[in-house]
Amino acid sequence: MCVPGYNLVDEPWLTVRPVDGGPPVELGIAEALARAHEFEGIVVEFSTQLPALLRQVLLPVVAHATGAPETLRVKGERLTQNGGFAESERKRLQFYLDEHRAKFDLFGQAAPFAQVAGLRTAKDETKGSATLVATAASGNNVPLFASRTDADPLDLTPAQAAHWLVHAHCWDTAAIKTGVVGDDQVKAGKTTGNPTGPLGQLGVIVPTGRTLYETLLLNLPVTPPSVLGTPQWTRGPHGPSWTARAAEGLLDLWTWQARRIRLIPHQNDAGQLRVARVVISAGDRLTRLPEQEPHTAWTFTAPVKKSVSALPERRPRRHTQGKAAWRGLDALLAPTRQSADGAFETSVLLDEVSGLQESGKLGADYPLQVETFGVVYGTQSAVVEDVIHDAIPLPLLALHQDSEAHQLLLDAAEQAELLARAVNNLSADLRRAAGTDPIPWDKGQRPGDLLLHSLDPLVRRLLAGVRDAGDDEDVLERGRLAWEQVAHRHVWEAANTLLLAAPATTFGGRTLDQSGTSGRAQTYRLGTAGANFRRQVDEILPRHADAVRQAAAAREAGTGPDLNPEPAPGADFDY
Questions:
Q1: What is the CA radius of gyration of the chain?
Q2: What is the SS3 assignment for 129-164?
Q3: Torsion of CA 403, 404, 407, 408, to 10 degrees
Q4: Which end of the chain is less crowded, N or C, counting CB atoms within 10 A of the terminal residue's CB?
C-alpha cells in the first residue's frame, strides 16, 4: 500500500505558543522559524522532547542555513538588533529547507527523516510504537501507574511519532537492541553494550528567552565554521551498520543518530496516517563527549589514575533526582567555581550570556529563564525510572563572580541546605532522646526535605527579585534580610512540628555511650536539642539574628518604637 508522505518542513507538527497569549498553533519547520519572534516557545507533550527538538531539528537548520555566530559580538547583534530573523536570513532559511526538503519527509522512500529506509530484522519482526515512547509500557520499561500494557496498541499521529523519534536519538535507554539485517556486529540476533542516548549522559541546561527566536539565538554557541560540521540529513542515507566514533563538529553532535530506526506508517479505518509499529536497533556510539558540548555544566574530579602529572577529569554534571534547579546554582553561576564538593564549570551558553550582559548587549533586567532536563535510568540504564525537569529565572548579574547578586544567591542556596541539615539534626537528637534511632539519610523522608520543599517558592521569588534589583546594593541587602526573615519563619515552623510531637520522655532524655565516636557518654534531651537548633539557625541566618537583637535592645532601652522582632520584608522583595 502506498502511504502518503509527511514532510516536516510544511506539515503542522510543531506546537508553538504565541507571545500575545492566544491559543497554541501547529506549524511546520519553515513557518515556525520564519515567525519565531511571534512565539514564546515550543509546547511539547513530554518535557525532555524540548531539547531533542531543538538539537535534532531547529538549531541545526538555523546554524547550517544562516551560520552560527563566529564571535560574541555577532551573537549579541543577531540577538538584539533584529527582534527576529532578518529578511535575508528568512530567505536563506527557506532556500535551505527547499534544497533539503526531501530529507525531511518522515515517510520518505529513500531517506526518511532520521531513519534508515528498509530497516528490518532477519524475520521481519517489528515492535509496537510504545518502544519509542518513554512514558509507555514496553518490555521491561513499565512506568509507575501505567494505564496500558505492552500488548495494547499505541497509534501515534505523524507529529507524535516525529517527536518521539528525535527523543529516542537523544534519550533512549541502553542495553540490548534488536539485531537487523546489514549490521555485521549483530550476535544471536541482538546487539549489546549500547549506551543511552547522548543527552541521557548529561545534566541538560537550556537558556530560554522571551521568544522562540531569542531562545534559538541563546542556544547557538559561538562556533567557527571550521568546527561547525554538518547535520545528519546532509551526510547521505544511513544504513543499518553503525560505528563508534567522535562527533565531527557541533551539528553532527546535535543530530547524532544514536539508534537506527524505521517508522512503519499505516492508514487507519478513517484514512488517517498513523504509526503503530517500529524497528529500533543499535546506532552510532560517541567515543568521547566533545569539550564544546554546550548544553551541560561540568564537574572536575580527581583522576582515576593517580600520578603527579595527572589532571582532574572533566565530566558532565548530572542533575540530581528530586533536587530543584536552584540547589545547583553553584555550578550554574560562574565560569569556574571551587567548593567543598569539587570544582565546577558552567555551560558554554550561560558563560556567553554573561559575556553578552557584560558587553551591554543584554540588560541586567533581561528575563532569562534556565530550564534543566535529565533522565534517571534504572537496571543497567535499560529502563526509565524518572524524568527531571525544572525552570528558574536567572539574574544576569549573578553570572559575574564579583557581583553582589552572585554572592547573595549562592549564600541563599547554601543557607537553605544548612537549614535543612539543622532540622534533620534536631529530628535526630529528639529521636535519640526518645530512645529511637535517627532516620537514615537514604531511607524515608527526613523533615529537612519537607523544609526545602516549603522554601522552594521563596527562593524562586528571591531569584526574580534579584533580577529586578539589578546592581542596587541597598535593595539587594534588603532582599538578603527579607529572605532570612521568611526562611527563619519557615524553619521554625518545621522545628515546632518536631518539638510538639516529642514524647514526654524526651524532657529527661537518654544517655548514650559514644565510645565508638567521641569516646564519652552523650546525653540527649529536648531542651538541649532545642538550644542547639536555635544556635545553629542564628549562625546560618546572621542578618535575621542581628535584627532581632537590635529590636530587643531598642525595646529594652525604650529608644524606639515597639519593633517587631521579625519585621515584614521590604517592598522590593515582597514575600
A1: 28
A2: HHHCCCCCCECCECCCCCCCCCCCCCCECHHHHHHH
A3: -150
A4: N
Question: How far is Cα 343 from Cα 315, in angstroms, rounded to an integer?
Answer: 11
Handedness of CA 341, 342, 343, 349 (dihedral sign): negative
pLDDT in tens, 35-88: 999 999 999 999 999 999 999 999 999 999 999 999 999 999 999 887 899 999
All three cell numbers of 507, joined, read: 524532657
For residue 44, CA distances in Å to 112, 188, 204 come to: 22, 38, 17
What does the alpha-carbon distance between residue 230 and residue 420 come to, in Å, rounded to a whole number? 48
Measured between alpha carbons, how far is 445 from 467 in angstroms, rounded to an integer? 33
Q: Which structural domains are found in the chain, ordered by start?
A: 48-83+95-262+272-399 (no CATH), 403-575 (1.10.132.100)
CB atoms inside a 10 Å sphere around CB 501: 11
Q: Of all helices (H) and strands (E), which one includes residue 128?
A: strand 127-128
**3-class secondary-structure state, position 64:** helix
Nearest to 389 by CA among 81, 130, 171, 562: 171
Report whether 408 contacts 470 (CB < 8 A): no
CA distance 190 to 346: 39
Per-block mean pLDDT, blocks of 10 residues, the chain (575 long)? 85 96 95 96 96 98 96 93 90 97 95 95 92 72 51 85 97 91 90 93 95 97 94 90 94 96 92 93 92 90 66 85 88 65 83 93 93 91 90 93 92 95 92 81 82 95 92 91 95 93 80 65 80 94 91 78 44 54
For residue 475 the three cell numbers come to: 535593595
Query: 84-102, pLDDT tens digit by residue?
Result: 999 999 999 999 999 999 9
Sign of CA dihedral 564, 566, 571, 575: negative
Residue 143: predicted pLDDT: 52
Strand 285-286 to 244-245 pairing: parallel
